[in-house]
Specification:
The chain has 378 residues and is of the alpha/beta class. The protein is built from eleven helices and 13 strands. The protein has a seven-stranded mixed sheet, sandwiched between helices. The chain has a four-stranded antiparallel sheet with strand order 9-10-13-12, covered by helices on one side. Helix 6 links the parallel strand 5 and strand 6.
Length: 378
């Protein structure tokens, strides 16, 4: 029996509706949105609009035109950062960030952006008061991840976004590990920029993602080129979303993402999150106390997302993951998970951890089999 516990990287399997939507866009539509006035192009445009509307509904965005489709959360984060920051600006972030946020910030720091990194606790949780002390009159942005991809720590984003708003700074949220399993209300949580992958908790295909941009943000495009609009001008349109989606859209991927978001809303974000976190809690209860096993996660279950990391004393994490895969056909991930500073914070650098991450389709029986396999690896 094959067990997939790497949903933090890419969710699998997808709902059947996602596979069907991708095929329909490829076989029955075929054309690109905004690149013609014929029926197939109009059908493609309709899919794009409906996908935008689904994303707006999912994240409580009043105007769906503020949703920009990207090929990943990484692209969305780069667009958010490079489209708003300039030399002399100050940014506050945390020690728990994924390289998708940390590396663009590091590059911008080399280009004159001032960066402050707030240290999280050894459980990976950020204290909002540390952000309050870090902001200055020059702070242009506060940028953090919602849920740690290493230890699953859920950050108190409402308190942090309030601090950013009080300081007159923009609030950028990386929702790579929370979109689809933790309710997100962009207005209520004062989120100015929301970066989301399509292929994780939204159950869309790889190569999809989105960026929400609030009306408070004056965004510069990351790419320029053909948009199908304003073709007489050599300047890039500044209208949303056209001016920020240069080039041919990934229509099959976006059609699949639309189906994935509709599936998430049908099941309910809270229900999906409860299911996944209950499975993590079950794994914690079974793994805790095993000889030589150390869990790296918040002690409070309410502060944990659908991610659990652990190490086994005397065993290399990569070797454990290899053994789980080849002996038991269980897919997990080992290493630094593209977040080296987070591992320094947790005390698991440079060896990293073994990470398991259940999804909506994971069962309690599969978690029990996973724990039994870990016991056999000791």
């Amino acid at each position: 029996m094959s067990i997939y516990l790497d949903n933090a990287a890419t969710s699998y399997p997808k709902p059947e509706s996602v596979y069907l939507a991708v095929m329909h866009a490829m076989r029955e539509v075929g054309a690109s949105p905004g690149r013609g006035g014929h029926r197939r192009s109009l059908d493609a445009g309709r899919i794009m609009f409906q996908a935008r509307e689904a994303a707006a509904a999912l994240f409580s965005v009043p105007d769906s035109s503020r949703i920009i489709f990207t090929h990943s959360a990484t692209e969305a984060l780069n667009m958010a950062l490079r489209g708003t920051l300039a030399a002399g600006d100050h940014v506050v972030t945390s020690s728990m960030e994924h390289n998708s946020l940390a590396r663009p910030l590091h590059l911008l720091e080399k280009q004159g952006v001032d960066l402050t990194i707030v240290q999280a606790s050894t459980e990976g949780i950020i204290d909002p008061e540390d952000f309050r002390r870090a902001v200055t009159p020059r702070t242009r942005m506060v940028a953090i991840g919602h849920v740690s991809n290493v230890c699953g720590a859920i950050q108190p984003i409402d308190r942090i976004s309030a601090i950013a708003r009080e300081a007159g700074a923009l609030f950028l949220l990386d929702a790579a590990q929370s979109a689809g399993s933790v309710p997100i209300d962009c207005v209520a949580s004062a989120i100015d920029l929301l970066a989301v992958p399509g292929h994780k908790g939204l159950y869309g295909p790889q190569g999809t993602g989105l960026l929400y941009v609030s009306p408070r943000v004056a965004l510069m495009p990351l790419l320029t080129g053909g948009t199908g609009t304003n073709s007489t001008s050599e300047d890039q349109p500044d209208s949303f979303p056209d001016g920020f989606e240069a080039g041919t859209h990934n229509l099959p991927g976006i059609a699949g993402l639309k189906a994935g978001m509709e599936f998430v809303m049908e099941q309910g974000v809270a229900a999906i999150g409860d299911h996944e976190r209950n499975l993590v809690t079950y794994a914690v209860e079974m793994l805790r106390g095993l000889p030589r096993v150390t869990l790296h996660c918040p002690e409070d279950p309410a502060m944990r997302g659908a991610v659990l990391s652990f190490t086994i004393a005397g065993k290399d994490s990569a070797a454990v993951a290899f053994e789980l895969d080849h002996r038991f056909d269980i897919a997990v991930r080992a290493g630094l998970h593209c977040a080296p500073r987070a591992h320094r914070t947790l005390g698991t650098f440079p060896g990293g951890t073994v990470r398991m991450s259940p999804g909506w389709f994971t069962t309690r029986e599969e978690i029990a089999m996973f724990v039994d396999a870990v016991v056999q690896c000791l």
